[in-house]
Write a structure and sequence with these properties.
Cytochrome p450, Cytochrome P450, disordered N terminus, 17 helices, about 45% helix, oxidoreductase activity, acting on paired donors, with incorporation or reduction of molecular oxygen, Cyt_P450_CS, three-stranded antiparallel beta sheet, alpha+beta
Length: about 450
C-alpha cells in the first residue's frame, strides 16, 4: 500500500452516500424528479427501487427488439431490449458509437447549459471512446486482468474473503451489503490501485456518486457530485505525482503513468478513467455478491443445489450475473442512418442497450425470471457487455464471486434474508443499498 501521508477529502466522512442523498431529496420534495409520461420509458428509477421492471421489459420484448421513447427527461432514445439486437449493435462499433458517453445521460448543448445556468462537466473514459483511441487505453490496463495475472491474485482474494467470512456474526442480523459486498470489492480496488488502505472506503463513496444517473436530473445534487469527483481527481493526482518518478509497479496508476496511450491524459480524462475503473470494479462485483445471497434466499431449491453440489459453483456465478445484471444499460449513438430489426434509426439518435432486459429474454433463456444454477447457457448473459467494450475486468469479477461461494460452502454457511432489503434508486447501477441477513449452517 502507498505509504506517503495523503490528504483525504473531508466530504466522504460528512456527506451521505449518493443514493441516500437522492432519497433524502425525494423525501423533502417528491416532485424533484421529472415526470416520465410514456409507459415504456424505463429510464424511471422507481421501477428498479421497487423491483417491478420485469413485466415492463417483457411487454416491450413481445412488441419488438427496439422501440422509440420520444418524451423522456433524458431526451428521446431507442430502447433496445432483445438479446439479439444488443449483440448486433455491440458488434458494429463504427456504426453504433460509444463516443460521448455510455449512460442514458446525453450531452447537453451549450444553449441548454446556458439556459440552466450550468457549466459543461465531461469525463472522457476509454469505454466511451471509439477505435483507435479506445484500443490504446484499454491495452494499458488489460495486462492487470489477463488469466495469468488473475491466477496470481487468487490466493490473496481467497485469504481476504475467508478472513472476512470468519469474522461475521452467527445468528445475529447484520447488513450483508456493507459488511461483505462493499468490504470485499473495496479492498480489491484498493489492491489494484495500490490505494491507501485506511482510506479505501473513499472508493465506494466515489463509485456511488459517479454511478447514479438520476442525480443528473437534480441540479443541486449534480453540482455536489461534480465537486466530489473533483476531490477524487485531486486525491488520485497526489498518488500520480508520488509515483511519477518511481520505477514502474504493477498497480493501475503506475500502468497509466508509464503508458504512452495514457500518460498525457488531461485531468478530465484521468478522472473519467478513474470513474470507469472504480464503478466497473466496484458495482458489478459488489451488487452480484449481494444478488447471489438474495437470489438463493428467494429460490431455496437453488441454494440446496449449491449446498449439495459445489461443483456447480462456476456455473452458479454465471447464472447469478445473468439474474442480477448489476449494470442495467449502456448507450450507443448511431453514426449513420440504418435499418435495425424493422426500425429506421437516424444518424445521431441514441440507443439504450438494456442488458437487464436481454438477460431475461425468453428467446435465449428458458424461464428467465427463475434462478437456475444448472442453466446450460448461463454464460450467454450480457452483464459484461459484448464486443470490443466487453468488461476488461470480467475475469476478476468472476474469480471474486467464485471464491466467495467456495469459501461460504467450505464453512457450510447458509445466509438468510432476515430484515430490510433496500434497492438502489437508479436506472444504471442495479443493486442493493442494504440487505439485512442472518447466518446459519447447513
Amino acid at each position: 500500500m502507498a505509504t506517503q501521508p495523503l490528504e483525504a477529502p473531508a466530504t466522504w466522512r460528512t456527506e451521505p452516500r449518493a443514493t441516500d442523498a437522492l432519497e433524502a431529496a425525494l423525501d423533502a420534495n417528491p416532485q424533484i424528479l421529472p415526470h416520465h409520461s410514456e409507459p415504456w420509458d424505463v429510464s424511471r428509477s422507481d421501477i428498479y427501487v421497487e423491483d417491478r421492471w420485469q413485466p415492463i421489459f417483457a411487454a416491450m420484448r413481445a412488441a419488438g427488439d427496439l422501440n422509440k421513447v420520444q418524451d423522456s427527461p433524458f431526451g428521446p432514445h431507442w430502447n433496445v431490449v432483445s438479446h439479439r439486437a444488443i449483440q448486433h449493435i455491440e458488434a458494429l462499433p463504427e456504426l453504433y458509437s460509444s463516443e460521448g458517453g455510455i449512460t442514458i445521460i446525453q450531452p447537453m448543448s451549450d444553449e441548454k447549459l446556458a439556459e440552466l445556468g450550468r457549466e459543461r462537466f465531461e469525463l472522457p473514459m476509454f469505454i466511451a471512446m471509439d477505435r483507435p483511441k479506445h484500443t490504446g487505453q484499454r491495452r494499458t490496463v488489460a495486462p492487470k486482468f489477463t488469466p495469468s495475472a488473475i491466477t496470481e491474485m487468487e490466493a490473496e482474494i481467497r485469504q481476504r474473503t475467508g478472513e472476512l467470512l470468519d469474522s461475521l456474526p452467527r445468528r445475529e442480523v447484520f447488513d450483508w451489503v456493507d459488511t461483505v459486498s462493499i468490504e470485499l470489492t473495496t479492498g480489491m480496488l484498493a489492491i489494484l490501485f495500490d490505494f491507501p488502505w485506511k482510506d479505501r472506503r473513499l472508493l465506494t463513496f466515489w463509485s456511488d456518486w459517479a454511478g447514479d444517473t438520476e442525480i443528473a436530473l437534480v441540479r443541486d445534487l449534480d453540482i455536489q457530485r461534480q465537486d466530489i469527483l473533483r476531490e477524487m481527481g485531486a486525491y488520485f493526482m497526489q498518488l500520480w505525482m508520488e509515483r511519477a518518478n518511481k520505477e514502474p509497479t504493477p498497480d493501475l496508476i503506475s500502468m497509466m503513468i508509464h503508458s504512452p496511450a495514457m500518460n498525457q491524459m488531461s485531468p478530465q480524462e484521468f478522472m473519467g478513467n478513474l470513474v470507469l475503473l472504480i464503478v466497473g470494479g466496484n458495482d458489478t462485483t459488489r451488487n452480484t455478491m449481494s444478488g447471489i445471497v438474495h437470489a438463493f434466499d428467494k429460490f431455496p431449491d437453488q441454494r440446496k443445489l449449491f449446498e449439495e453440489q459445489p461443483e456447480l459453483i462456476p456455473n452458479a456465478v454465471q447464472e447469478c450475473l445473468r439474474y442480477q445484471t448489476p449494470l442495467a444499460h449502456m448507450r450507443r449513438t448511431a453514426t449513420a442512418d440504418s435499418e435495425l430489426f424493422g426500425q429506421t434509426v437516424k444518424a445521431g439518435e441514441s440507443l439504450i442497450l438494456w442488458y437487464i432486459s436481454a438477460n431475461r429474454d425468453d428467446n435465449v433463456f428458458d424461464n428467465p425470471d427463475t434462478l437456475d444454477i444448472t442453466r446450460e447457457n448461463a454464460r450467454r448473459h450480457l452483464s459484461f457487455g459484448y464486443g470490443i467494450h466487453r468488461c476488461v475486468g470480467a475475469r476478476l469479477a468472476e474469480l471474486q464471486l467464485r471464491v466467495l461461494l467456495e469459501e461460504m460452502h467450505k464453512r457450510r454457511m447458509r445466509v438468510h434474508v432476515a430484515g430490510d432489503v433496500e434497492r438502489v434508486r437508479a436506472n444504471f447501477v442495479h443493486g442493493f443499498r442494504k440487505m439485512e441477513v442472518e447466518i446459519t449452517e447447513f
